[in-house]
Design goal:
About 40% of the residues lie in helices and about 20% in strands. It has a 3-stranded antiparallel beta sheet with strand order 1-3-2. The chain has a 3-stranded mixed beta sheet with strand order 5-4-6, with no helix packed on it.
Length: about 140
């Protein structure tokens, strides 16, 4: 946690109680969380949803969190380590919205071939898989 709060200090940002608690929650969860999930994990009356939204916006602007959209209308946030670009993929349950992080990625050759074939440069990608998790299959 000290490296996370150090990143805030280096950017001359205050380490408020809600910001520290939000970072702690994100650090403890291995998958992206919505602002409402973050608020629910905070101690009761610690802050309001608007404070969570503002904090997530700040942390995203600073490159400390990455925003994901899994096509259910809710933005989810995940911590990004310093020096990490946060590039990975997810497997999302269409029933319970559970998320599994996928480490595998396309080989660079595929991305380069797609870019070249279509005349694009500076191509990147995001990839999410959707399905029904084992718990929801029961």
């Amino acid at each position: 946690m000290s490296d996370l709060t150090g990143r805030l200090r280096r950017e001359s940002r205050k380490i408020t109680g809600p910001r520290a608690a939000i970072l702690e929650i994100l650090h403890a969860h291995p998958h992206p969380l919505t602002s409402r999930e973050i608020l629910a994990a905070l101690p009761k009356d610690h802050c309001d949803l608007a404070t969570v939204y503002r904090s997530m916006h700040l942390l995203e602007t600073m490159g400390m969190v990455k925003r994901y959209h899994f096509h259910d209308g809710a933005a989810r946030f995940e911590l990004v380590g310093e020096g990490d670009d946060g590039h990975h993929h997810h497997l999302v349950c269409v029933n319970c919205s559970g998320v599994v992080e996928i480490a595998e990625c396309f080989p660079d050759e595929i991305q380069k071939r797609i870019a070249q074939k279509n005349g694009y440069k500076n191509v990147t990608h995001k990839l999410e898989f959707f399905g029904t998790c084992p718990d929801c299959q029961r």
